[in-house]
Amino acid sequence: MKKFTQVKKTIIGTEYTAQFNGIAEMYKSIDNTYMDGRDTTSMYKMAEYLLKNVLVEPKKNFDDFEDTNEFNEVLSFLGSVHRGTFREETDESTAEETGKK
User: Fold this and answer.
1) Of 99 and 32, more confident
2) What is the pLDDT of residues 6-29, one digit of tens each?
3) What does pTM read for this prediction?
């Protein structure tokens, strides 16, 4: 998977662009959002991280959303991009097939 891949999705009439920043960055963000040192990730810290570092356009913060349904849908999209679990429509090959090219 390419580092810095951008993905677009329209949610409730707004087009969002999110960026996958790589696997190492994903793990660093998890480590940096723990509340108690190693077991519990802060939902607030992770949401803040996703809005600042994964969301490319439009830039938003917590209070820019109309309701929690919209906010949660955007966070779900950002989280999937951040984890690299999104699918690009143009690339349907598996990781194993890609490595054999």
Assistant:
1) 32
2) 999 999 999 999 999 988 898 899
3) 0.77
Give the E-state strand segments of the chain in sequence order: 5-11, 14-20, 55-57
Structure tokens of 5?
């891949």
> What's the distance, CA 39 to chain centroid?
21
Tokens representing 8? 């677009």
Residue 49 has a CB neighbour count (10 Å cut-off) of 19
**What contacts 4, CB < 8 A, 6 or more positions away?**
19, 20, 21, 22
* Cα 25-28-29 angle, rounded to 5 deg: 85
Residue with tokens 């913060």: 61
- 3-state helix, strand and coil shares in percent for the chain, rounded to the nearest 5: 45, 20, 35
How far apart are alpha carbons 101 and 32 in whole angstroms? 36
Gap between the Cα atoms of 75 and 64, Å rounded: 13
DSSP state of 8: E
